């Protein structure tokens, strides 16, 4: 059966046109593909295998081997947030194609800075970002892409409310796209160039994921929340333990978690490097679909429910078991999301490590935790304090996930409670979670602690202050710690003191999974593209400092790369925040030359342990990383970056790959890569290479020259070599591995995947 996705919205004034006629569920096709693959493999399939293999371009002939082969897939739709959509749409324009081939949407959520409060911050953002919003709106209209205006909400909440459904495959230009796994979808974060492939109707490539099973038993209760599941799993698997794998939750414990709670768990799976995460279809998902106006889909999912759960007897590459009866509330941090502590221990651990105990700010919301249930549970904690005459000791901010959530929590009184306890309701946007926070209560460099219900807590991520110790936890624990004003408070056992001297304990939080009265959709913020946008104009001013049309990168010369300079040898953790910072730099995401001025300015130089201070080997002087790179480029000197483990973890931002390419980089040589970043580098014609022997990292010196040999016979599975010339005249040869397949080698030869796409059009 084929069914159009048409939604019955809660209010008649809300646009029905956000659901494109071409956006359909074809469970029959999915079932047919799964049957073909199951027969070929002759074994039971996991849920993620069913959905992924169900979207194969050629299920009859595709080579399928978990962790080894590349799959050619046909995702159902594309979603882009405004910071990454700029470059994605610039690349799509550059492709010369007239219209997107699959349903696609742009979501304005990243460019709104938190400063005063929701209404004023949104008005200021519309003014400051008018040029970018106009570009995205007109490009969307011209090329057939739906446009969610600023103020509509965070991309992942909008997807959950409108576009995710059991069995769909969606790719999004944001690393937290896996949020949709809470609704039984396979939603994968990618770079903009991958989105361009799908929008162009080209099969999308993904290395066949391994599958990590997480079996849940028991029941969530008390102060323990869905967030604690992923905080615990992050502590077990670490920031790279999920790389190349889909995390699949199953077991009897699943039914005790709400649909939005499952989305929280899948969302933060990005922090363990997982390709995505997914839950099996159940009654919680059915109820959520019905409440969000998609009862038809729920009925069809019921009919095909066997397709939307794992086969009995399926095998996982790794299995983790968690008993929810025994799981305690957790808080992870600082500086990395996998440093897990039970809330009961974190105060003592903080004292031992010299982390500031005073909580300066508590922040709830973000794409990870801004559901109706999250806000209800936080409000239930806040109300207990208010009833005793207490307010937050710390500053407190609230970020609703969408316009629908904002309107509904306002109607149902949650916003008033959270405001009365001291909270400031921010715009329906990413805000402080991605560094869009004009923070003024501490000076840069001042050591302090914040607690958030966000997903990442890398150094300086939220407020650009490297001395801020950020901890991630559930919204209800954030609220309790903001009221207590200290990390050294366990709401399960500790007492608060009311103004009248009465000591009292907080009861465990409670909150409705979904509103009793249906959702209030609030203002309509969706712009549907016209049926024919070919006459629309998309203007990019040559004088703009926010937007810049792209010039194609140069093709490979056909020869080995000789005498490449080491631009920087990076020491330790190097996330995409270190490579291409967000916060104030977000404004340049549509202008490659301007944003390249932030390239690697957060990375630690192994030579001197300094940030943004490297030696220019042409002049002998020290300078900033982008400045030295520009000087090398101007003098026709190509260069490499040398890095450590899990290089490029974190955000999907492809600017972290575009910038080194733009400034003359040729290769990135590291111990290991995060998945999305490695693919993004390949897409832009760079060589992501790994030391065959990780200890060879120690052999590279900052003043070395490196030649990469073997490119003339560049083939899948065959290592390249690096001839390293030291300044003392000695040389050594190191083996470098790569994960390029034949298609990706063509990208390298053409200079980029986009160049190759254009070659194939002629």
UniProtKB/TrEMBL annotation:
Its cofactor is [4Fe-4S] cluster. It is found in: Mitochondrion. Pathway: Carbohydrate metabolism; tricarboxylic acid cycle; isocitrate from oxaloacetate: step 2/2. It is an enzyme of class 4 (lyase). It comes from the Eukaryota. One of its GO terms (biological process) is tricarboxylic acid cycle. Residues 49-485 form the Aconitase/3-isopropylmalate dehydratase large subunit alpha/beta/alpha domain. This is Aconitate hydratase, mitochondrial. Residues 498-539 are annotated as: Disordered. The keyword Ribonucleoprotein does not apply. InterPro entries: Acnase/IPM_dHydase_lsu_aba_1/3, Acoase/IPM_deHydtase_lsu_aba, Aconitase/3IPM_dehydase_swvl, Aconitase/IPM_isomerase, Aconitase_4Fe-4S_BS, Aconitase_4Fe-4S_dom, Aconitase_dom2, Aconitase_mito-like. Belongs to the aconitase/IPM isomerase family. It holds the Pfam family Aconitase. It catalyses: citrate = D-threo-isocitrate. Keywords: 4Fe-4S, Iron, Iron-sulfur, Lyase, Metal-binding, Mitochondrion, Transit peptide, Tricarboxylic acid cycle. Catalyzes the isomerization of citrate to isocitrate via cis-aconitate. The gene is ACO2. Its EC number is 4.2.1.3. One of its GO terms (molecular function) is metal ion binding. It comes from Amphiprion ocellaris (Clown anemonefish).
